[in-house]
Amino acid sequence: MNASLALHLARPHHSKPSRAAERRRVRRPSRPPGSPVATLFMAMFAAQAGLLSLGPVLPDVAHEFGVSTAAAGQLRTLGGLAGGAAAVAVSLFGSRLGLRRMLIAGHLMLALGTLASAAAQNLAVLAAAQAAVGAAAGLLIAGALAASAAWSEPGRRARALAVASLGQPMSWVAGMPLGGLLAELDWRYSLLGVPLAASLAGSAALARLPRPAGSTPAGRSLRSLPVWAMPELSAYAAWGGALVFAGALLVEAYSVSPGVVGLLLGAVALAALPGNMLARPWLTGYARELLVVLGLAAALLVAVFGIARPGAAASTAILALLVLVATTRTVAGSALALQSAGDRRLAAMGVRAATGQFGYLVGAAVGGAALATGGYEMLAVSLAALFVLGTIPHLTAIVSQTRRPRLKDSSVFARFRFGPDAA
Predict the structure, then answer these.
(1) Does the residue 21 lie in any domain?
(2) Around Cβ 258, how many Cβ atoms within 10 Å?
(3) Residue in 273, 268, 267, 143 with CA at minimum distance from that of residue 216
């Protein structure tokens, strides 16, 4: 009896945990998971904040270093070139780094670039720092857009892309006024404040995300990418030219003060919100059709804005409509590339970011030449022509598809698939 009792007591007993203990174990996560969409929004916000920070303080920078405002403006050109080069590098080598590490590198480079810009004691150091800021923007934009598809379930990719893309226009809304207030203290604070804060916030949000399993696959080649990239470059050039010269038109045509123009430009950026959200249901199956319709609408609006000039209030309303149309068109272009790229999303979004950076520079150059040649009327015609040029390949594809049986694959850009199986 005593031996059997001792044997019974020596056996391990696994008592069933109480229901309260089970509830406590379920309710207590080991780590806050974070939100991928919020993280990608912050990456796009930070990238745009870095690109915007220099514009309002160009006269102060020029005075500080004893150069003309036009010469100081070349710092923005240098940043755009660096961003385009970084985005091209993403297309070629980004799969070796992976999305998470690319976003970390972008935030780190942006923080270092803004700190170096604020501390620059000569123009050469400021130029190098702004090149770092531009390269960081290229990494962040390409990585965030690719991650909007890679880190989302198939049914939620359109929403993730639309929300992440709002980071750029929202940087106009919040970043421009805050940067202006900081510039009242010192131009160095303007270069430092908003981009650095956005970079730190984006890094913190990224740190909360669980590490993804695996890495970005190598996937297929992108031999037919120019079919998509060239119309995007044309449309980005038109949109970039409109952004560069819209404020100048309001000042010169209607005698609006620069301070009021800054507030107006920040306010019209809010028009990007409804466009991105309303277009979301159409991004999956009709991105190409959206590119045609919105491209032609943008051409009409930019022509009316620059030629008709119906008054300050009406022109501001037209500019708001142009923001709505152009930013929605940008999201549709990104959706089209993501749907067509298969597992080469990162490479495709690297090219998308490059077309944005280089398109901005092309638009500024074309717009400047047109403005010098024929005034704002010629500027409007040139920008409208670029918008129309960006619709032609997509319109051609739509017409050709209507003349043959519908492909079983429902990809909206199936005719121009990337890779060796494109034919």
Answers:
(1) no
(2) 11
(3) 143
Claim to verify: residue 359 and residue 243 sit in the same structural domain: yes
- Nearest one of 289, 357, 294 to 329, comparing CA atoms: 294
Give the HSE-up count for residue 242: Cα atoms under 13 Å, Cβ half-sphere: 35
Domain count, the chain: 2
Q: What is the mean pLDDT of residues 90-112?
A: 85
392's enclosing H/E stretch is helix 345-402
**DSSP notation for 182-234:** HHHH-HHHHHHHHHHHHHHHHHHHHHTSPPPSS--------TTHHHHHHHHHH
How does residue 223 score in pLDDT terms, banded at 50, 70 and 90? low
Q: Tell me, what's the pLDDT at 392?
A: 92
Segments forming the whole domain that contains residue 251: 224-405
Which residue in the block uniquely carries the two structure tokens 């491209």?
Answer: 295
Tokens of 418: 């990337």
Give CA torsion, residues 297, 299, 305, 308, to 10 deg.
-100
Of 309, 296, 306, nearest to 380 by C-alpha is 306
* Burial of residue 263, with CB atoms counted within 10 A of its CB: 0-12 exposed, 13-18 middle, 19 or more buried: middle
pTM for the whole thing?
Answer: 0.72
**The tokens of 154 are what?**
């198939």
Chain-centroid distance, C-alpha 92: 19
Domain final residue pick, 187, 210, 233: 210
